[in-house]
Amino acid sequence: MTTAVTTEAAPSRHRWLCFFLAVIATIELVDALTSIQTIFTDHSDDTTALRFAQTLTNIRLLLTPLIVAAALVFCAMGNVHRAILALAAFDLMVWSLDGVPAIALHGISLSFEYGGLEDVILYIITPIAALAGGALALRKRRPGLASLLVSLSTLFRWISVVIFFIVVLKYGI
């Protein structure tokens, strides 16, 4: 009798996690699909480092829809742990293909301004959170915390957009 109650309660909780992860994956998928046309843009950069960074960005733009769509499929199938792993892989891929070259080319700004906060969250906290969320998903422990950890960068970016729009609506341009 205890087993029946446990198996009935578990899918309800995982259903909400699947919904949350599906929303995050959908946001990232829409963002990726609207940005994919920049792969075909000719970037005549002067330095080899900038051309190399643009090549890495093109690779990221090509891989992002595949990884995020896989996370969306896993959410649709109800497999929370694999969806978390796919989003963790996405975060680590974005960090390695965008974050590391950006740090190498421009450095990292550690300040209390928005740019410094963004650098700390996207270049330091995101990869650590993705690794921790992926490790939790591999062990099949604490799926709620793992879901939150792998979605931190998406939540940060979109909360920033919402705050920007609220400020523009309130104070004007």
List keywords for this structure.
173 residues; 6 helices; globular; single chain; mainly alpha
Describe what this molecule looks like in 3D.
This protein is globular. The termini are far apart. It has one domain (2-171). α2 (48-77) packs antiparallel against α3 (80-106) and α4 packs antiparallel against α5. The chain is mostly helical and 173 residues long. It has helices spanning 2-35, 48-77, 80-106, 114-139, 143-150, 152-171. 84% of the residues lie in helices and 0% in strands. The protein contains 6 helices and no strands.
Looking at how many chains there are and whether they match, the oligomeric state comes to: single chain
Number of helices: 6
Number of domains: 1
Tell me the fraction of residues in β-strands, as a range.
Answer: under 5%
Element-level helix/strand string: HHHHHH
Summarize the structure.
The protein has 173 residues and is mainly alpha-helical. Helices cover 84% and strands 0% of the residues.
How would you summarize the topology of this molecule?
Blueprint: H1 2-35, H2 48-77, H3 80-106, H4 114-139, H5 143-150, H6 152-171
Helix pairs in contact: 1-2, 1-3, 2-3, 3-4, 3-5, 4-5
